[in-house]
Design brief:
The chain is an alpha/beta fold. Helix content is 32%, strand content 22%. The strands form five sheets. It has a six-stranded parallel sheet, sandwiched between helices. Strands 2-1-3-4-5 form a five-stranded parallel sheet, with helices on both faces. The longest helix is centred in the first third of the chain and has 16 residues. The relative contact order is 0.11.
Length: 402
């Protein structure tokens, strides 16, 4: 694990890009500052891996598209052997694309489309944009990531010894012992109807929810947390991402493709299912409408503002409906959101915690809650996965399925 602390010393920056023009522009833009020191340059991944060992940079700007060894391959080698806060650059991909999410999944802390800051910006704005990205990355903790271990089921629960299922037709309660049950369904001992035991063929009612809120930088945190969970944790995950709708929609598709459970874009009228993950863009006003043991989303789009309150809104709605069966979690974000929601959850005897701010690209959301509510602030992504799993599994004996 790597963590950088800065006082008066400049941030040591390595620029890796096959375009000498781009390297020159960045060098000319950043060399005027005394708080950033360009300690090296490289034109491809092979050169970069060699230079990294010599200059020990604090932050790396790494191009995705390069000859000999491209940026994605370089990033994977880097995160295995010398994890360093890395910002990916690309002229072919943009924020919210699958390539962007791939980079974050493999350990990058941020992603910049070159077109975003080299077209339509004057030099002053361009320099400030890059500087802000560099300093946010410099104060972010990164740790070793082995891509061969990702998605390997390390977050899977041990198979539950006992399940409680309910017949959809007559509502009769059945206790299923996995040690003796070998089929994919059982007969209701009251009405004789078949009750499916296959995870993706049965409806799980929601008995517990974790509401996760994040803004800028949150995608990287989510990609280290959500794929490590599975539907057998019970309950549901409700995730608010304060970002443009098209980026959130793209992320939902990406996450759904790499997870063992269904990841859905939240929509008005959708009934929540236990074991599912529902993602909101934060521009909607949300209510949970209980009906016959289920919960349906009632959503109304509201204008996005600098203080949207999307995280607060969902946390409050969930807490007022499910009371103490709600957990709140805050990840990276620069927005002023989430504190009121956590206050409501705590008032209803729910559980709240934050990701360690050192693991957040933007620390405002987590830092405010940490100070205001004295929450545990030492949890990394792996510890968050464990805590979610433990909280949800504690309600497993009450899981209602049909």
């Amino acid at each position: 694990m790597t963590q950088h602390n800065y006082s008066d010393s400049p941030v040591k920056l390595l620029i890796v890009d096959d375009s000498w023009v781009l390297r020159r522009v960045l060098r000319e833009t950043l060399s005027q500052r005394n708080d950033i020191e360009i300690v090296g340059e490289a034109a491809n991944g092979i050169e970069a891996l060699s230079v990294i060992l010599q200059v020990d940079p604090d932050v790396i700007l790494l191009d995705v598209e390069m000859p000999i060894m491209d940026g994605m391959t370089t990033l994977q080698h880097l995160m295995i052997h010398t994890p360093t806060p890395t910002i990916m650059l690309s002229s072919l991909s943009k924020k919210g694309s699958a390539r962007c999410f791939d980079a974050l999944k493999y350990g990058a802390v941020d992603f910049i489309s070159k077109n975003c800051f080299f077209k339509g910006m004057d030099m002053a704005d361009q320099g400030q944009f890059v500087v802000e990205k560099i300093f946010a990355a410099a104060h972010t903790t990164v740790h070793s990531i082995d891509p061969m271990q990702q998605g390997s089921g390390s977050g899977a629960l041990t198979k539950i010894a006992v399940k409680v299922v309910f017949c959809e037709d007559c509502g009769t309660r059945h206790i299923i012992h996995n040690s003796v049950q070998t089929g994919t369904s059982v007969k209701c001992n009251n009405c004789g109807d078949d009750i499916s035991l296959v995870a993706d063929k049965r409806f799980r009612r929601v008995n517990f929810v974790t509401v996760i809120g994040c803004g800028e930088g949150g995608y990287a945190n989510l990609l280290k947390i959500i794929p490590e969970l599975n539907p057998e944790i019970g309950g549901a995950l409700l995730v608010v991402i304060l970002d443009e709708v098209e980026h959130v929609e793209s992320f939902v598709k990406y996450l759904d493709a790499i997870c063992d459970f269904k990841v859905s874009l939240a929509q008005d009228g959708l009934t929540l299912e236990g074991g599912g993950c529902y993602i909101f863009s934060g521009i909607e006003h949300v209510e949970l409408s209980p009906y016959s043991g289920n919960y349906t989303l009632q959503m109304e789009v509201t204008p996005m503002s600098g203080n949207s309150g999307g995280i607060d809104n969902l946390m409050i709605a969930a807490s007022r409906t499910l009371k103490n069966r709600v957990a709140g979690l805050l990840l990276s974000g620069a927005e002023d959101d989430g504190s009121k929601g956590m206050e409501e959850i705590l008032k209803n005897n729910g559980t709240c915690w934050i990701l360690n701010p050192d693991h957040c690209l933007q620390k405002a959301i987590t830092s405010r809650a940490f100070i205001k509510y004295n929450l545990p602030g030492d949890l990394d992504e792996n510890a968050v996965v464990t805590r979610i799993r433990d909280l949800h599994s504690s309600y497993q004996e009450n899981v209602i399925t049909a």
